[in-house]
Amino acid sequence: MKVIQVVGRSNSGKTYFIHRLLERMTVMFPGKVGVIKHMGHHIFELSEGKDTTTHYEHGAECVAGVDAEKTVLTVRDDNLDKSLEILCDLGMKYAIIEGFKEYGFKKIVKGELESGECLLRDPTVDDVTESLDAFDDYYTLGGLVKELEEDERAPAGASIVTFSGVFENIPMDYGKIAGKIGENEGIVSVKTSLNGKKVMIGVASVDTRSACNAIDKAVSELAGMKS
């Protein structure tokens, strides 16, 4: 899942720009674009007296209200990572974030706000859609599996194998090592994610043995190298 973060001072046009971006991207990637907005100190008020609200008030960790058109989920968590995990597990390919400027994702900056992670400043929608590959990845194992399942290169009945592990030393050429997985016989598609010291690998293969052998080689190489 690609993370497209939009930041800027108040009244810089963040929301308006995201609306224009959504109009384009939801056509390009139907059903695969989600949005997270940082509310800050403005508390999102739950409807007083409604069953979904009282369930939450009585201690439920999360409450989902499902009607004929949509599902509204309330989660007792204010961490951006939790929302990103939810979107990724739902199979979103793109998560647009409004705000949370303290997070280190590559950013679209509206206006004069200073940011060390600025990828695009005051871009057009075309600028963004032409630069999608440059934005940061964010994955959960569930998200990796969904992308592999939807990969058009994977034949019906393809085996999907995942790995998740923490390494004290991640080599500088991590990407090359991960890329070697795809060179193994029987491998159809590979997805990898690096978040700090945590490495996640997902492989789609014509058979389970090929996928396991390819991941085993990559993990052994990662474990044996120093940064």
UniProtKB/TrEMBL annotation:
Judging by the UniProt lineage, the source's domain of life is: Archaea
| One annotated GO molecular function | GTP binding
Molybdopterin-guanine dinucleotide biosynthesis protein B (MobB) domain location: 3-109
| Any Pfam family hit | MobB
Q: Which InterPro entries match?
A: MGD_biosynthesis_adapter (IPR052539), MobB_dom (IPR004435), P-loop_NTPase (IPR027417)
Q: Which GO terms describe its biological process?
A: Mo-molybdopterin cofactor biosynthetic process
Q: What protein name applies here?
A: Molybdopterin-guanine dinucleotide biosynthesis protein B
